[in-house]
Amino acid sequence: MIVADLSPQELLRRLGGAGLRLRTGPVLNRIQSRLPKIAHGVALHYADHAVEDSAGFADFHVRVAPPRSLRRWMNPQVHFQFDGARPFLPLPADQAFPILEWGLNWCVSSHCHQYLIVHAASVEKSGLALLLPGPPGSGKSTLCAGLVSRGWRLLSDELTLLDLGTGRVVPLPRPVSLKNASIDAIRRFSPGAVLSPPVHDTVKGSVAHMKPPTESVHRATETARPRWIVLPRYECGAAPRLAPLSRARAFMHLADHAFNYDVHGRRGFELLAQVVAGSDCFDFQYGALEDTIAVFDDAARRV
Amino acid sequence: MSSLPALRWRSMPTDAIAWREWDGEFVVRNERTGSTHLLGPLAGSVLQILLEGNGALSIADISAALGDHPAATAAPDRCAAIDAVLSEFKRLGLAEPDPR
Questions:
Q1: pTM (2 decimals)?
Q2: Chain B positions touching chain A (beta carbons under 8 Å)
Protein backbone atom coordinates (compact mmCIF):
# COMPACT_ATOMS: atom_id res chain seq x y z
CA MET A 1 0.00 0.00 0.00
CA ILE A 2 1.16 3.54 -0.80
CA VAL A 3 0.07 6.91 0.58
CA ALA A 4 -2.00 7.61 -2.55
CA ASP A 5 -4.11 4.55 -1.76
CA LEU A 6 -5.34 6.19 1.44
CA SER A 7 -8.40 8.43 1.33
CA PRO A 8 -7.86 11.92 2.79
CA GLN A 9 -9.94 10.86 5.78
CA GLU A 10 -7.90 7.71 6.35
CA LEU A 11 -4.65 9.65 6.06
CA LEU A 12 -5.88 12.16 8.65
CA ARG A 13 -7.07 9.31 10.87
CA ARG A 14 -3.69 7.60 10.82
CA LEU A 15 -1.69 10.78 11.30
CA GLY A 16 -3.99 11.91 14.10
CA GLY A 17 -4.10 8.50 15.74
CA ALA A 18 -1.50 5.76 16.11
CA GLY A 19 0.64 7.28 13.37
CA LEU A 20 1.35 6.88 9.66
CA ARG A 21 4.07 4.30 9.11
CA LEU A 22 5.86 5.77 6.12
CA ARG A 23 8.80 4.06 4.44
CA THR A 24 11.47 6.33 3.00
CA GLY A 25 14.25 4.24 1.49
CA PRO A 26 15.73 2.06 4.23
CA VAL A 27 14.00 4.05 6.98
CA LEU A 28 10.57 3.44 8.51
CA ASN A 29 9.07 6.56 10.09
CA ARG A 30 6.06 6.70 12.37
CA ILE A 31 4.57 10.17 11.87
CA GLN A 32 1.85 11.66 14.05
CA SER A 33 0.17 15.04 13.58
CA ARG A 34 -3.31 16.50 13.67
CA LEU A 35 -2.24 19.46 11.56
CA PRO A 36 -3.91 19.73 8.13
CA LYS A 37 -0.68 21.16 6.67
CA ILE A 38 1.13 17.94 7.52
CA ALA A 39 -1.60 15.80 5.96
CA HIS A 40 -1.57 17.95 2.82
CA GLY A 41 2.21 17.88 2.61
CA VAL A 42 2.42 14.12 3.09
CA ALA A 43 -0.38 13.50 0.55
CA LEU A 44 1.33 15.73 -2.01
CA HIS A 45 4.97 14.76 -1.61
CA TYR A 46 4.84 11.17 -0.39
CA ALA A 47 1.96 9.93 -2.58
CA ASP A 48 4.13 7.14 -4.06
CA HIS A 49 5.82 6.05 -0.82
CA ALA A 50 4.95 2.79 0.87
CA VAL A 51 2.80 2.73 3.98
CA GLU A 52 3.25 -0.14 6.37
CA ASP A 53 0.26 -1.37 8.27
CA SER A 54 1.56 -3.33 11.18
CA ALA A 55 2.18 -1.87 14.59
CA GLY A 56 5.72 -3.26 14.54
CA PHE A 57 9.11 -1.60 14.74
CA ALA A 58 9.69 1.89 13.40
CA ASP A 59 13.08 3.60 13.21
CA PHE A 60 11.81 7.05 14.13
CA HIS A 61 8.73 8.11 16.08
CA VAL A 62 8.06 11.75 15.25
CA ARG A 63 5.23 14.19 15.81
CA VAL A 64 4.51 17.73 14.67
CA ALA A 65 2.15 19.50 17.06
CA PRO A 66 1.32 22.93 18.45
CA PRO A 67 2.67 23.76 21.90
CA ARG A 68 0.32 23.55 24.86
CA SER A 69 0.29 27.25 25.54
CA LEU A 70 -1.25 30.50 24.36
CA ARG A 71 1.01 30.20 21.31
CA ARG A 72 -1.59 27.74 20.11
CA TRP A 73 -3.82 30.76 19.48
CA MET A 74 -1.56 33.83 19.25
CA ASN A 75 1.07 33.72 16.48
CA PRO A 76 0.65 29.94 16.45
CA GLN A 77 3.73 27.75 16.41
CA VAL A 78 4.58 24.09 15.91
CA HIS A 79 7.07 21.75 17.54
CA PHE A 80 8.91 18.81 16.03
CA GLN A 81 9.01 15.94 18.51
CA PHE A 82 11.25 12.90 18.40
CA ASP A 83 10.52 10.12 20.88
CA GLY A 84 8.56 12.73 22.84
CA ALA A 85 11.53 15.12 23.08
CA ARG A 86 11.77 18.48 21.30
CA PRO A 87 15.21 18.79 19.72
CA PHE A 88 14.48 22.16 18.06
CA LEU A 89 12.91 25.48 18.92
CA PRO A 90 9.32 25.83 17.71
CA LEU A 91 8.62 27.50 14.37
CA PRO A 92 5.64 29.46 13.02
CA ALA A 93 2.70 27.17 12.25
CA ASP A 94 2.88 27.74 8.50
CA GLN A 95 6.30 26.01 8.57
CA ALA A 96 4.77 22.72 9.74
CA PHE A 97 5.74 20.71 6.66
CA PRO A 98 9.26 22.18 6.39
CA ILE A 99 9.88 21.39 10.08
CA LEU A 100 8.78 17.80 9.45
CA GLU A 101 11.23 17.54 6.55
CA TRP A 102 14.08 19.13 8.50
CA GLY A 103 13.26 16.93 11.46
CA LEU A 104 13.31 13.75 9.37
CA ASN A 105 16.68 14.83 7.94
CA TRP A 106 17.96 15.30 11.48
CA CYS A 107 16.70 11.84 12.48
CA VAL A 108 18.71 10.23 9.69
CA SER A 109 21.87 12.32 10.00
CA SER A 110 21.98 11.88 13.77
CA HIS A 111 21.13 8.21 14.04
CA CYS A 112 21.69 6.18 10.88
CA HIS A 113 25.31 5.37 11.58
CA GLN A 114 25.06 2.09 9.72
CA TYR A 115 25.88 4.40 6.77
CA LEU A 116 28.47 7.04 6.12
CA ILE A 117 26.23 10.06 5.55
CA VAL A 118 27.40 12.90 3.33
CA HIS A 119 25.64 16.25 3.06
CA ALA A 120 25.15 15.84 -0.66
CA ALA A 121 22.48 15.44 -3.29
CA SER A 122 22.86 12.36 -5.44
CA VAL A 123 21.29 11.19 -8.69
CA GLU A 124 21.76 8.12 -10.86
CA LYS A 125 21.92 7.12 -14.50
CA SER A 126 22.76 3.64 -15.87
CA GLY A 127 23.54 2.41 -12.37
CA LEU A 128 26.14 5.12 -11.74
CA ALA A 129 25.75 7.80 -9.09
CA LEU A 130 26.59 11.48 -9.38
CA LEU A 131 27.31 12.97 -5.96
CA LEU A 132 26.80 16.70 -5.44
CA PRO A 133 28.21 17.60 -2.03
CA GLY A 134 28.03 21.17 -0.86
CA PRO A 135 26.89 23.60 1.78
CA PRO A 136 23.49 25.33 1.69
CA GLY A 137 23.40 27.89 -1.10
CA SER A 138 25.85 26.04 -3.35
CA GLY A 139 23.05 25.15 -5.77
CA LYS A 140 23.12 21.39 -5.22
CA SER A 141 19.35 21.01 -4.71
CA THR A 142 18.57 23.16 -7.76
CA LEU A 143 20.93 21.09 -9.88
CA CYS A 144 19.52 17.89 -8.39
CA ALA A 145 15.93 18.98 -9.16
CA GLY A 146 16.94 19.93 -12.70
CA LEU A 147 18.64 16.59 -13.32
CA VAL A 148 15.75 14.50 -12.00
CA SER A 149 13.40 16.55 -14.17
CA ARG A 150 15.42 15.38 -17.19
CA GLY A 151 15.59 11.65 -16.57
CA TRP A 152 18.17 11.18 -13.85
CA ARG A 153 16.94 9.10 -10.90
CA LEU A 154 16.75 10.82 -7.54
CA LEU A 155 18.78 9.02 -4.91
CA SER A 156 18.65 11.79 -2.33
CA ASP A 157 18.43 15.54 -2.21
CA GLU A 158 20.11 16.19 1.10
CA LEU A 159 21.64 13.08 2.67
CA THR A 160 23.68 10.67 0.59
CA LEU A 161 23.90 7.33 2.39
CA LEU A 162 27.03 5.29 1.61
CA ASP A 163 26.90 1.60 2.46
CA LEU A 164 29.86 0.81 4.70
CA GLY A 165 30.36 -2.61 3.17
CA THR A 166 30.00 -1.92 -0.53
CA GLY A 167 30.57 1.84 -0.87
CA ARG A 168 27.36 2.07 -2.92
CA VAL A 169 24.76 4.80 -2.54
CA VAL A 170 21.60 3.65 -0.77
CA PRO A 171 18.63 5.67 -2.08
CA LEU A 172 16.64 7.89 0.23
CA PRO A 173 14.25 9.51 -2.24
CA ARG A 174 12.36 12.24 -0.39
CA PRO A 175 11.13 15.69 -1.43
CA VAL A 176 13.73 18.06 -2.89
CA SER A 177 14.07 21.23 -0.84
CA LEU A 178 14.13 24.35 -3.02
CA LYS A 179 14.90 27.79 -1.70
CA ASN A 180 14.35 31.36 -2.84
CA ALA A 181 15.16 31.97 -6.54
CA SER A 182 15.53 28.24 -7.24
CA ILE A 183 11.77 27.76 -6.70
CA ASP A 184 10.88 29.83 -9.77
CA ALA A 185 13.90 28.46 -11.64
CA ILE A 186 12.53 24.92 -11.31
CA ARG A 187 8.98 26.06 -12.13
CA ARG A 188 10.29 27.54 -15.39
CA PHE A 189 12.62 24.64 -16.16
CA SER A 190 10.16 21.88 -15.36
CA PRO A 191 6.53 23.08 -15.54
CA GLY A 192 5.32 19.55 -14.78
CA ALA A 193 7.16 19.32 -11.47
CA VAL A 194 4.92 19.02 -8.40
CA LEU A 195 5.88 21.79 -5.98
CA SER A 196 4.32 22.80 -2.69
CA PRO A 197 3.29 26.44 -2.25
CA PRO A 198 6.33 28.37 -0.95
CA VAL A 199 6.60 29.01 2.76
CA HIS A 200 8.16 32.41 3.38
CA ASP A 201 10.34 33.85 6.14
CA THR A 202 11.91 30.58 7.26
CA VAL A 203 15.50 30.54 8.53
CA LYS A 204 16.44 29.54 4.98
CA GLY A 205 14.30 32.20 3.30
CA SER A 206 11.40 31.05 1.14
CA VAL A 207 11.17 27.28 0.92
CA ALA A 208 9.17 24.95 -1.33
CA HIS A 209 9.48 21.20 -1.74
CA MET A 210 9.39 19.23 -4.98
CA LYS A 211 7.75 15.80 -5.03
CA PRO A 212 10.27 13.05 -5.87
CA PRO A 213 9.60 11.38 -9.22
CA THR A 214 7.45 8.25 -8.94
CA GLU A 215 10.07 6.04 -10.61
CA SER A 216 12.72 7.16 -8.12
CA VAL A 217 10.48 6.11 -5.24
CA HIS A 218 9.63 2.77 -6.86
CA ARG A 219 13.35 2.01 -7.34
CA ALA A 220 14.33 2.97 -3.81
CA THR A 221 15.92 -0.42 -3.14
CA GLU A 222 18.31 -0.16 -6.14
CA THR A 223 21.70 1.03 -4.95
CA ALA A 224 24.14 2.83 -7.26
CA ARG A 225 27.92 2.92 -7.62
CA PRO A 226 29.50 6.36 -7.08
CA ARG A 227 31.06 7.45 -10.38
CA TRP A 228 31.24 11.25 -10.30
CA ILE A 229 31.85 13.70 -7.49
CA VAL A 230 30.91 17.23 -8.50
CA LEU A 231 31.15 20.30 -6.29
CA PRO A 232 28.48 22.67 -7.62
CA ARG A 233 28.71 26.43 -7.32
CA TYR A 234 25.82 28.53 -8.55
CA GLU A 235 26.78 31.91 -9.94
CA CYS A 236 24.11 34.07 -11.53
CA GLY A 237 24.65 34.31 -15.29
CA ALA A 238 27.68 32.01 -15.38
CA ALA A 239 28.10 29.59 -18.27
CA PRO A 240 28.41 25.94 -17.18
CA ARG A 241 32.05 25.05 -16.58
CA LEU A 242 33.33 21.69 -15.43
CA ALA A 243 36.91 21.86 -14.09
CA PRO A 244 38.88 18.81 -12.92
CA LEU A 245 39.30 18.48 -9.18
CA SER A 246 42.02 16.35 -7.63
CA ARG A 247 40.87 13.21 -5.86
CA ALA A 248 42.64 14.21 -2.65
CA ARG A 249 40.72 17.50 -2.56
CA ALA A 250 37.47 15.72 -3.39
CA PHE A 251 38.18 13.33 -0.51
CA MET A 252 38.65 16.22 1.92
CA HIS A 253 35.47 17.85 0.66
CA LEU A 254 33.45 14.68 1.23
CA ALA A 255 34.96 14.22 4.68
CA ASP A 256 34.22 17.85 5.57
CA HIS A 257 30.61 17.44 4.43
CA ALA A 258 30.00 14.08 6.08
CA PHE A 259 27.82 14.06 9.17
CA ASN A 260 29.45 11.05 10.76
CA TYR A 261 32.91 10.61 9.19
CA ASP A 262 34.49 10.76 12.65
CA VAL A 263 32.07 8.15 14.00
CA HIS A 264 33.47 5.55 11.61
CA GLY A 265 37.17 6.15 12.17
CA ARG A 266 39.49 4.14 9.92
CA ARG A 267 36.51 2.49 8.21
CA GLY A 268 35.16 5.88 7.15
CA PHE A 269 38.57 6.82 5.74
CA GLU A 270 38.81 3.58 3.76
CA LEU A 271 35.25 3.96 2.46
CA LEU A 272 35.74 7.51 1.24
CA ALA A 273 39.05 6.50 -0.33
CA GLN A 274 37.24 3.73 -2.20
CA VAL A 275 34.50 6.13 -3.37
CA VAL A 276 36.98 8.77 -4.52
CA ALA A 277 39.29 6.27 -6.24
CA GLY A 278 36.39 5.07 -8.39
CA SER A 279 35.10 8.53 -9.30
CA ASP A 280 35.91 11.38 -11.64
CA CYS A 281 35.93 14.59 -9.62
CA PHE A 282 35.09 18.11 -10.71
CA ASP A 283 34.33 21.64 -9.64
CA PHE A 284 31.23 22.81 -11.47
CA GLN A 285 30.12 26.38 -11.91
CA TYR A 286 26.73 27.07 -13.42
CA GLY A 287 24.27 29.90 -13.78
CA ALA A 288 21.25 28.39 -15.50
CA LEU A 289 19.84 24.89 -15.75
CA GLU A 290 19.06 25.07 -19.45
CA ASP A 291 22.70 24.56 -20.58
CA THR A 292 23.69 22.46 -17.62
CA ILE A 293 21.93 19.14 -17.97
CA ALA A 294 23.68 18.35 -21.27
CA VAL A 295 27.04 18.53 -19.49
CA PHE A 296 26.08 15.62 -17.25
CA ASP A 297 24.20 13.70 -19.94
CA ASP A 298 27.38 13.84 -22.03
CA ALA A 299 29.46 12.59 -19.10
CA ALA A 300 27.06 9.69 -18.57
CA ARG A 301 27.15 8.79 -22.28
CA ARG A 302 30.95 8.71 -22.34
CA VAL A 303 31.21 6.06 -19.62
CA MET B 1 59.89 27.20 15.55
CA SER B 2 62.55 25.68 13.35
CA SER B 3 63.90 22.25 14.20
CA LEU B 4 67.61 21.71 14.57
CA PRO B 5 69.27 20.13 11.52
CA ALA B 6 70.92 17.51 13.71
CA LEU B 7 67.59 16.17 14.94
CA ARG B 8 66.47 12.82 13.69
CA TRP B 9 62.81 12.22 12.98
CA ARG B 10 60.47 9.29 12.99
CA SER B 11 56.85 9.03 11.95
CA MET B 12 54.11 7.65 14.12
CA PRO B 13 53.91 3.85 13.89
CA THR B 14 52.62 2.73 10.51
CA ASP B 15 49.48 1.23 12.06
CA ALA B 16 48.61 4.68 13.48
CA ILE B 17 48.53 6.29 10.05
CA ALA B 18 46.33 5.55 7.04
CA TRP B 19 47.07 7.28 3.80
CA ARG B 20 46.26 7.41 0.10
CA GLU B 21 48.01 9.15 -2.74
CA TRP B 22 46.46 10.33 -5.96
CA ASP B 23 48.45 12.25 -8.58
CA GLY B 24 51.01 13.47 -6.07
CA GLU B 25 48.56 14.67 -3.42
CA PHE B 26 48.00 12.74 -0.22
CA VAL B 27 45.23 12.32 2.34
CA VAL B 28 46.42 11.09 5.71
CA ARG B 29 44.44 9.92 8.69
CA ASN B 30 46.12 10.03 12.08
CA GLU B 31 44.53 7.27 14.16
CA ARG B 32 45.77 8.80 17.39
CA THR B 33 44.08 12.17 16.88
CA GLY B 34 41.26 11.08 14.56
CA SER B 35 42.18 13.93 12.23
CA THR B 36 42.51 13.73 8.45
CA HIS B 37 44.90 16.00 6.56
CA LEU B 38 45.54 16.94 2.96
CA LEU B 39 49.25 16.92 2.12
CA GLY B 40 50.94 18.38 -0.93
CA PRO B 41 53.58 16.50 -2.94
CA LEU B 42 56.58 17.43 -0.76
CA ALA B 43 54.89 16.77 2.59
CA GLY B 44 53.37 13.55 1.32
CA SER B 45 56.71 12.31 0.02
CA VAL B 46 58.47 13.17 3.29
CA LEU B 47 55.84 11.24 5.21
CA GLN B 48 56.23 8.26 2.88
CA ILE B 49 60.00 8.30 3.45
CA LEU B 50 59.56 8.41 7.21
CA LEU B 51 56.99 5.61 7.14
CA GLU B 52 59.22 3.41 5.01
CA GLY B 53 62.43 4.42 6.78
CA ASN B 54 64.25 1.97 8.99
CA GLY B 55 64.64 4.07 12.13
CA ALA B 56 64.88 7.82 12.64
CA LEU B 57 66.04 10.03 9.79
CA SER B 58 67.78 13.38 9.67
CA ILE B 59 66.86 16.16 7.29
CA ALA B 60 69.91 15.23 5.25
CA ASP B 61 68.73 11.60 5.09
CA ILE B 62 65.29 12.71 3.95
CA SER B 63 66.74 15.09 1.40
CA ALA B 64 68.91 12.30 -0.01
CA ALA B 65 65.93 9.94 -0.16
CA LEU B 66 63.91 12.54 -2.05
CA GLY B 67 66.61 12.60 -4.73
CA ASP B 68 65.39 14.53 -7.73
CA HIS B 69 61.73 14.35 -6.76
CA PRO B 70 60.06 17.34 -8.50
CA ALA B 71 58.50 18.59 -5.26
CA ALA B 72 61.95 18.79 -3.68
CA THR B 73 63.77 20.28 -6.61
CA ALA B 74 61.11 22.97 -6.89
CA ALA B 75 61.86 24.26 -3.39
CA PRO B 76 64.44 27.10 -3.39
CA ASP B 77 65.93 25.83 -0.09
CA ARG B 78 65.27 22.12 0.10
CA CYS B 79 66.44 21.62 3.71
CA ALA B 80 64.40 24.57 4.94
CA ALA B 81 61.36 23.21 3.14
CA ILE B 82 61.81 19.75 4.71
CA ASP B 83 62.38 21.37 8.08
CA ALA B 84 59.11 23.29 7.76
CA VAL B 85 57.26 20.10 6.81
CA LEU B 86 58.67 18.25 9.83
CA SER B 87 57.68 21.07 12.16
CA GLU B 88 54.15 20.88 10.79
CA PHE B 89 54.14 17.08 11.19
CA LYS B 90 55.12 17.54 14.83
CA ARG B 91 52.20 19.93 15.33
CA LEU B 92 49.80 17.47 13.68
CA GLY B 93 51.15 14.47 15.56
CA LEU B 94 52.31 12.73 12.39
CA ALA B 95 56.00 12.64 13.28
CA GLU B 96 58.27 13.55 16.17
CA PRO B 97 61.95 14.07 16.86
CA ASP B 98 63.67 10.92 18.00
CA PRO B 99 64.66 11.37 21.67
CA ARG B 100 67.84 9.31 21.36
A1: 0.94
A2: 18, 20-23, 25-27, 29, 31, 34, 36, 38
